[in-house]
Amino acid sequence: MAELTHLLAQRAHEVQASAIREICKLIAKPQIRSLAGGWPDPATFPVADLQRIATDIFQQKPALALQYTTSEGLPELREFLADWLGKKEGIHCTPDELLITHGFSQGMELTAKIFIEAGDVAFVGLPTYFGGSGACQTFGAELVGVELDADGMIPDLLEEKILAAKKAGKRPKLLYVIPDFQNPSGVTMPLARRQRLVELAQQHDLVIAEDSPYRDLRYSGEAVPPLMSLEPSGRVVYLKSFSKVFCPGFRLAVVVGDADVIRRMVIARQFEDCCTAAFGQYLLYEFCRQGLLDRQIKLNCAIYTRKRDCMLQALDQHMPTEVQWNRPDGGFFVFVHLPAGMDAEELLHEAVDHDVAFVAGAPFYVDGSGSQTLRLSFAQSEPAVIEAAVAELGALLKAKM
User: Fold this and answer.
1) Is CATH 3.40.640.10 the right assignment for the domain spanning 61-290?
2) Distance separating alpha carbons of residues 135 and 116, to the nearest angstrom
């Protein structure tokens, strides 16, 4: 086979493999007790409803469901979601301001594609989900990390780094945030902090990419308005995945933005994949139209609340007092800080030898820090597995101390 390395584009050399996907290879053993993947529990999948809906679709509109569809997405699905987001989230939009994509990843890729030029500065959390930061980096952005505390990204530090970028002659362009139950930290921004981020974006002419995969999965506390509902001028791009509340296998998400932004995304995606698969869109539309989505969200919350509580109880019981972690109000993750000098990557390899897996925190930090952190997911495993895995981790940590 010909050696083509010398012909590769520079971005092909720079792109990094997903740490989570690589871990999945490492832990592909049936006995592994996994606290790694942030994947939904298959027990939440509405199989019976989808079987019934799929049968109806094949009987009533097979030619439409199996054909290409518009690049924007099914008109009836976009119309439903525009109404649903307005009532539920205070995001008042028209169907022309919505785009149905193949998951969050495509929506974020399109956002970066139409906004980022080589050398632009994109601000991301320390830590943050590398799917968002990676999309920006692919198009040449310089990533600048902004520290998080228990309330999410710290606005004063963001402002400092915006001003420093400008002083260095660089162009601040985009802010990527996950305001609700952030991946990996699990933290949620309070209203005042969201308002401050919007003010900074307006003041410094930034685009905000608001990633919202977990917002519907709240188990305690009160909901806080999304950033998009707080910013009327159209500089927020809202990315909502349905993977965590519907089914990830259909790879469905919606991007909400200014109509001109959406139009440019539509044009950009026509040279990528033309359109999102029609069959999955029809399934989601009928699922929503029949009132099943809100019911599904409640069922999911009940299942994940029990799992979250189990993990927090196990951590309280088994972890050394020197270890710290958050207590999330929703989402999939608990973020753990090890004592200074400990390395989560080393702990991971020891844990795998004891049939336990998690995600080391360093890949979530764009500045190379975070080696003493790790992410635990309570989403996939059953409570008994969660308890046993946390107990094993606690024993390993106590032995290391």
Assistant:
1) yes
2) 10
The verdict on whether omega for the bond into residue 127 sits within 30 degrees of 0, i.e. cis, is: yes
Domain spans of the chain, in order of start? 15-38+295-400, 61-290
**Of the CATH numbers 3.40.50.2000, 3.90.1150.10, 1.20.59.10, 3.20.20.150, which one belongs to the domain with range 15-38+295-400?**
3.90.1150.10
CA distance 252 to 377: 22
pLDDT tens digits, 35-86: 998 999 999 999 999 999 999 999 999 999 999 999 999 999 999 999 999 9
- Yes or no: say if 265 and 109 are a contact pair by the CB < 8 Å rule: no
* Predicted structure pTM score: 0.94
If pLDDT is split at 50, 70 and 90, which confidence band does 259 have? Answer: very high
Name residue, tokens 């539920």: 88
H or E segment and range at residue 211? strand 207-211
DSSP 379: S
By DSSP bridging, strand 207-211 and strand 373-377 are unpaired
